[in-house]
Amino acid sequence: MQDVIKVHCFGCGSLNERGLQIKSHWAGPEELVCRWQPQPFHIGHPGVVYGGMIASVVDCHAMWTAMAAHCRDSGIEMDGTALPFAYVTGKLSVSYLKPAVIDQPLELRARVVDKGERRSTVECVVLQRGQECARAEVIAVRVQPLA
Ligand SMILES: CCCCCCCCCC(=O)SCCNC(=O)CCNC(=O)[C@H](O)C(C)(C)COP(=O)(O)OP(=O)(O)OC[C@H]1O[C@@H](n2cnc3c(N)ncnc32)[C@H](O)[C@@H]1OP(=O)(O)O
After folding, report:
1. How much is the average pLDDT of 111-128?
2. Taking 90 as the threshold, does the pLDDT of residue 6 lie above it?
3. SS3 95
4. Mutate to test the pocket of ligand 1, among 88, 112, 143 (most ligand atoms within 8 A of CB)
5. Which residue has its alpha carbon closest to ligand 1 atom 23?
6. Is it true that domain 2-143 has CATH number 3.10.450.50?
């Protein structure tokens, strides 16, 4: 999905060579999936992914989830043309349930669970080797394009 909107965002921007370059995809009618391989320098405790990195990946994937769901609901094509809105993070709450090891990919599964006029509440689970290692609730707020 991020391939059609080329941005510099640290989380998803395909034009940010120092960024995380995450990619989000629909995986069913309600859920978007992101798979991300931590790099050795994303470490916190020995062998364990730094929690702030997990929060960063969740943050960006949740914004794409809110945006993709809103486009779907509004009949807006995500075809690379500039969108008339952006989503920003209002609140990000992560529960860390198990340590995530640094040498295995993470799988994020997110969906919009509640939607107001401009607010979308996104739930995201973070899995590693099929085990839930984190769970997050993110509030995404739709705003005017920022640039
Ligand atoms: C195309 C490329 C895509 C790239 C993806 C980029 C991902 C990047 C993600 C980020 O890092 S964004 C940067 C970090 N976030 C910010 O800088 C946001 C800073 N905060 C703001 O700009 C404003 O506070 C904000 C736009 C979030 C809200 O201000 P508003 O005055 O527009 O909100 P308003 O009070 O009208 O509330 C609108 C709705 O949002 C809800 N809301 C607003 N702020 C909230 C908050 N902080 N926590 C929870 N809910 C919040 C509010 O309750 C309400 O919900 P309901 O309609 O259901 O009542």
Report:
1. 98
2. no
3. strand
4. 88
5. 90
6. no
Q: Tokens at residue 59, please? A: 């943050």
- Does residue 147 carry a pLDDT above 90? no
Is the overall model pTM greater than 0.95, yes or no? Answer: yes
Q: How many CB atoms lie within 10 A of CB 140?
A: 28
- Amino acid in the structure at residue 52: G
Q: What is the mean pLDDT of the chain?
A: 96
Using DSSP, state whether 23 is helix, strand or coil: coil
Q: Residues 6 or more apart from 123 whose CB is under 8 A from it?
A: 110, 111, 113, 135, 136, 137, 138
Q: What is the mean pLDDT of residues 95-107?
A: 98
Nearest CA to ligand 1 atom 4: 9
For the chain, give the number of residues. Answer: 147
Q: What number is the ipTM of this complex? A: 0.97
The residues spanned by each domain of the chain are 2-143
Pocket test of ligand 1: the residue of 60, 119, 138 to mutate, having most ligand atoms within 8 Å of its CB, is: 119
